[in-house]
Structures are given as structure tokens and as C-alpha cells.
Write a structure and sequence with these properties.
7-stranded mixed beta sheet, two-stranded antiparallel ribbon, Four Helix Bundle (Hemerythrin (Met), subunit A), alpha/beta
Length: about 475
């Protein structure tokens, strides 16, 4: 009986997932019928048979869409009130289609009424799929991705009082409300909000974020790597668990880093961060506003900023940066007031010597390099040995093997290394014992063993090793 129930549930789920496909059939056919209904009576008479068959086809296809839609609605992952309105307007469309087919004297009028109700049903369906206000929203009303940080300036009198009495900063940013919530709204609400709750998960309020979804909690306070809300973001785009799914708008590197720091802060819904009046309110400078090594304490921001500013790097040649960008690499500053650079190879289809030669012109300024999912091999890493200020290296899902660790062992300033999904073994880990400054290494889905990891931990006691000891639970696989 259990096996039979599972098979029925799977079949029901399959039928429900056909709804987005089936629903476009009656829409297209009814649009065709509507055009025919506008023709003169003589022309309609010539196309009478075509007209009738088209109406019948729209009626049958709308019935199929209604059945699939009803099945999909049983998942409980959508706003009940909105689904109910969409459901009944869809059913009304179906009934009117059949009425138009059988009641020929009033066929034109019924077609016009049907198309009007279909438009309402379509709008409601679009709202369920894309979010409230999707059709009529304008750029002025939509959340602006580049205006995520909101400056909270106090009145002049209050500024003086606060400054003199308690040295409270003049401006304050609320981590969740001003930074994280707008990111979730633009990237996650379409599938995880009141209107649509994939996997039973809502991310549109503190209460529901803490509650999690059908597969459990998504937020582990203070530990981003064990929080699916963050961990799913950094999986390869082709991974089944990667969020947002392939084809949806993806968060930027800066937004992902900000979510990491927010979770790591240890106070996700009450934390604030001191800042200054001059801070630019754009998301492209988020790595500037929050250093990567925030260590869970937002109160240390000002101190860290001061420490970094005491070790300035010479500015890179603007012409050299422009050359690198023309080659297809993404070049971003790592921090406001700092000349350090972050280099991302994400858009490259092929890496050649020309690119390495261009990077040599700014090697002193390069702090971060992202080579994830690139066709990079062991010998390529040797070309980065002269980058003495390189601190963060991402080579996950690449062709790197233990041989590549010979070059990495020479990166004297390296603090963070991601080799997720590579062929690294314990032999390669042994070579990392020389990386005394290494603070974090990601070893998910590598060929390393617990013995090799333990040896590395003994050699580098302060090293944080993430080896995927926790499991991600696939979304939407639970029993409905």
C-alpha cells in the first residue's frame, strides 16, 4: 500500500508540473479564436468549421489545464486565497469555452467574455509565478538592487548628544532589514514567499526564515557553511541543489559574501553595523562595507577598516585593469580606500597565456582570484606564485590535482582555499602543511580522507576545515 501511495503521489506531482505547459495551449488558441471573431460575418461563415474546431480545442485544453492546475495546487506551496481566485477564473474560462462551442447564436459574445476572464486568470497565474505586482510594477516602484544599503542619518541635535554621551556612530545600518531583506526580495521571494512556497519555505519574514521549510532549518546562526540558505548559493550552477535554480536571477558574488557575513555575525535579526555618512549605498561596494574576515563580530568593522588602511597597496595602472576587463575578466576592488583587487574568471570560456600576462601587470594588487568551474590545470597555478598578496583562491570544480598543491604551497599569504569538487587526495593535503597563514579550506567532494584531514589539522591547528560533513536535503522531495 505504501509503495502504491508513493507511485500515486509521484504521478500526481507529474500531472501538476504539466500545468505551466498545458495552460498556454488554451491561451494561444483563444487568442486565435478572438481574432477570428472580429472578422466580418461573411468571412466567419467561410471559416465556420475552423472557428468551431478552434473553440472545441480551447475548451478541451483548458479542461486539461484546470485538472493539472488543481493537482499542482494540492502541494500547498502557494497562497491559498490567490490560488482560489486563479482556480475559479480558470474553471470559468473552461466552462465558457464549452458554452461558446455549443451555444452558437451567442458564440461571439461568449468568446469575448471568455477572453476577458482568461486575461484575469492569466494575470493571477503570473502573480503566483512571478510575485505580486509583477505586471504593473515599474522601475520606480520595484526594489532597486543597487540601493540596498539604507543610510540612517540622525538629526543634528541627536548626533551631538549621541556622540558626546556614548560615542554612538552617526549612522547605523541594520544588517537584516537594510541589507539582507532586499537581496532575498529580489532573488528569492518569487519562489519562497506568501504567494509561492517551494518546499514549504518562506523567506519573507524573520519568523519563517527561522522556521525553515519541509526539509528542515535553512539558517544555523553563526555558521554559514551549515546553513542551506548560504550553502546552496555556493554550489555549482549545474548542481541540483544550487539556489536560485539555473535560469533564475542569480545573486552576485558580493551579495553571497554579504549573506555569509550576515549569518556569521551570530545575531541575524538584531545586528547593526556602524558606518559613516560617506558610505555609498550601492550593492557593488558591499565587499567594501563588510570585510570578508568579519569573524562574526560586526562591531569590529571600524577596527578592521583601520587595520587594512594602514597597509596600503600602490594603485594599479588603470590601463592594465582596462586590458584585463577587455579580456573578459571581472575586476572589482576588495575594499573602499584599498587598491586590492578581486579577479573573477566566471565569464571566460578559455584561459590562455595572454590572460596570465595581463594579470602580471597588477599582480601586486591581486588579493582574490576565482577560477571556479574553469578549465584550469596544475601547471597554470604555477603562474600565480609571484602573486605575493594573494589571500583567497577559488579553484573548485576544476582539473586541479595533487600536483597543483606544489604551487599553492608557495602562496605565502594564502588565507582561504576552495578545492571543492576536485581530485585532491591526502597526498595533496600534505603539501599544504607549509601554508602557515591558511585559515579556511573547503574540501567538499574531494578524494581526501579523515586521516589526511586530521594530519592537516595537526599541522595547522587554527585552520578551519570544511569537508562537507553535513548533508544538504533536496528540495521538494518530501512526501506531500
Amino acid at each position: 500500500m505504501i509503495a502504491l501511495y508513493i507511485e500515486i503521489s509521484r504521478f500526481s506531482s507529474f500531472i501538476g508540473h504539466l500545468h505551466p505547459l498545458l495552460v498556454h495551449l488554451p491561451i494561444g488558441i483563444l487568442c486565435f479564436v478572438f481574432v477570428l471573431s472580429l472578422l466580418s460575418s461573411e468571412k466567419r461563415e467561410l471559416l465556420k468549421l475552423t472557428f468551431s474546431y478552434a473553440i472545441l480545442a480551447s475548451a478541451i485544453s483548458s479542461l486539461a489545464a484546470c485538472v493539472a492546475g488543481y493537482t499542482l495546487a494540492q502541494s500547498g506551496e502557494y497562497d491559498a486565497d490567490l490560488v482560489m481566485k486563479h482556480q475559479w477564473t480558470g474553471i470559468a474560462t473552461c466552462i465558457l469555452c464549452f458554452a461558446a462551442y455549443f451555444i452558437t447564436p451567442y458564440r461571439r459574445l461568449l468568446i469575448w467574455i471568455t477572453c476577458g476572464i482568461m486575461s484575469v486568470a492569466g494575470h493571477l497565474g503570473g502573480t503566483i509565478t512571478h510575485g505580486e505586482g509583477y505586471l504593473f510594477s515599474s522601475n520606480n516602484n520595484a526594489p532597486k538592487e543597487k540601493e540596498i544599503l539604507i543610510e540612517k542619518a540622525l538629526p543634528e541635535t541627536e548626533k551631538k548628544q549621541k556622540t558626546s554621551d556614548s560615542l554612538t556612530p552617526l549612522t547605523e545600518i541594520f544588517l537584516y532589514r537594510d541589507q539582507i531583506s532586499p537581496i532575498l526580495q529580489s532573488k528569492c521571494y518569487a519562489c519562497h514567499s506568501k504567494i509561492k512556497m517551494k518546499g514549504g519555505l518562506r523567506l519573507d519574514s524573520e519568523k519563517f526564515i527561522l522556521k525553515g521549510g519541509k526539509n528542515g532549518a535553512v539558517l544555523t546562526t553563526g555558521n554559514p557553511e551549515k546553513s542551506p540558505l548560504y550553502a546552496h548559493l555556493i554550489l555549482p550552477l549545474g548542481d541540483d541543489l544550487h539556489m536560485p535554480p539555473k535560469g533564475k536571477r542569480q545573486p552576485t558574488i558580493q551579495e553571497i559574501q554579504l549573506i555569509h557575513n550576515w549569518i556569521k555575525s551570530g545575531n541575524p535579526f538584531g545586528g547593526t553595523m556602524p558606518t559613516t555618512k560617506e558610505i555609498q549605498t550601492i550593492v557593488s561596494t558591499l565587499p567594501v562595507l563588510i570585510p570578508e574576515d568579519i569573524n562574526g563580530d560586526v562591531s569590529n568593522f571600524s577596527t578592521q577598516e583601520k587595520n587594512i588602511s594602514t597597509k596600503p597597496l600602490p594603485a594599479a595602472d588603470p590601463a592594465a585593469i582596462e586590458t584585463i576587463q577587455k579580456l573578459g575578466l571581472i575586476v572589482l576592488p576588495i575594499q573602499e580606500g584599498s587598491n586590492g583587487l578581486s579577479i573573477n574568471f566566471v565569464n571566460l570560456k578559455q584561459i590562455d597565456q595572454t590572460i596570465f600576462n595581463a594579470l602580471l601587470n597588477v599582480k601586486e594588487q591581486i588579493i582574490n582570484i576565482n577560477l571556479s568551474n574553469q578549465d584550469v590545470e596544475d601547471e597554470d597555478l604555477q603562474k600565480f606564485v609571484s602573486f605575493k598578496n594573494l589571500k583567497n583562491l577559488h579553484i573548485e570544480k576544476s582539473k586541479i590535482t595533487d600536483e597543483g598543491m606544489n604551487a599553492i604551497a608557495q602562496f605565502t599569504s594564502l588565507e582561504q582555499l576552495n578545492v571543492y569538487g576536485t581530485n585532491i587526495t591526502d597526498k595533496g593535503l600534505n603539501k599544504l602543511h607549509l601554508c602557515k597563514n591558511l585559515k579556511v579550506i573547503y574540501l567538499w567532494k574531494t578524494k581526501t580522507t579523515n586521516i589526511g584531514i586530521e594530519k592537516l589539522q595537526k599541522a595547522l591547528p587554527t585552520l578551519k576545515i570544511e569537508n562537507g560533513s553535513f548533508e544538504f536535503t533536496k528540495v521538494d522531495t518530501s512526501k506531500k
